């Protein structure tokens, strides 16, 4: 076994104090998804969308990686001869803070803003505004948080598809499996012959393609699993 694909979702960051989306008291209980995470919502009220992500950016900036993020990073460091690709649906930067390499943010990153006029991406540490001016093309009223909204294509799909074809072990962590295409990655990995594992707090509906499901807190279950994994 030489190739590991790890898909993470909001559940891996829950123990770092960041809200998931669909759990009780999750982000989508307090906000309408259509208002703050759809391209139609952005078109209707870009100011509200920027305010939402400005607030989230402050929380994410303060958050620190937990044992699950660290276990992935250590696993990578201890096994330099194994390819370990991490694809996250999370826009937080906790994998990077834990020192993990090869992380693809398929739903974007909280620390980036994109100009919808020219596609230029800038790092954003402070607040962003829709009526800001793009530093590259000079256009006003085109800045959007570089986060993939419902109605947009996820990023890095070609690279991810290739990784899924070549992985021997597929591990999903802290994801409810309801948002596609990420929810379909397990079936692709399984089709190409990978062993498949899910580490989640509770059973999910969409679990047909998982060979093994380990229920519990990711900070406990994932380190135990990765420490024992032998190649
Ligand atoms: N350890 C493991 N799993 C956990 C933990 C924990 N400590 N806490 C919560 N979970 C699980 C929940 O049981 C739930 O099944 O994490 C899952 C989180 O699911 P969602 O809130 O739906 O998050 P996610 O799957 O990442 O959402 C996918 O939906 O709204 C969009 O773009 C957004 O990237 C997001 C996508």
General description of the model:
With 231 residues, the protein is an alpha/beta fold. Helices cover 35% and strands 20% of the residues. It is built from 10 helices and 9 strands. Strands 3-2-1-7-8-9 form a 6-stranded parallel beta sheet, with helices on both faces. The chain has a 3-stranded antiparallel beta sheet with strand order 5-4-6, with helices on one face. Strand 7 (169-173), helix 9 and strand 8 (195-200) form a beta-alpha-beta unit. Helix 6 runs parallel beside helix 10 and helix 8 runs parallel beside helix 9 (185-191). The longest helix has 17 residues, at 46-62. The protein starts with a strand and ends with a helix. The mean pLDDT is 95. Residues 9-11, 14-15, 20-23, 26, 37, 89, 107, 174-176, 178-179, 200-202, 204, 217-218 line the site of adenosine-5-diphosphoribose.
- State the helicity in percent bands: 25-40%
Helical run tally: 10
Can you list the ligands bound to this structure?
adenosine-5-diphosphoribose
What summary fits the major beta sheet?
A: 6 strands, parallel
Q: Bin the strand percentage.
A: 15-25%
Shape descriptor reads globular
The helix/strand series, from N terminus to C terminus, equals: EHHHHHHEHEEEEHEHEEH
Query: What structural class results from the helix and strand content?
Result: alpha/beta
Put the structure in a nutshell.
Helix content is 35%, strand content 20%. It is α/β, with parallel strands linked by helices. It is globular, with a radius of gyration of 18 Å.
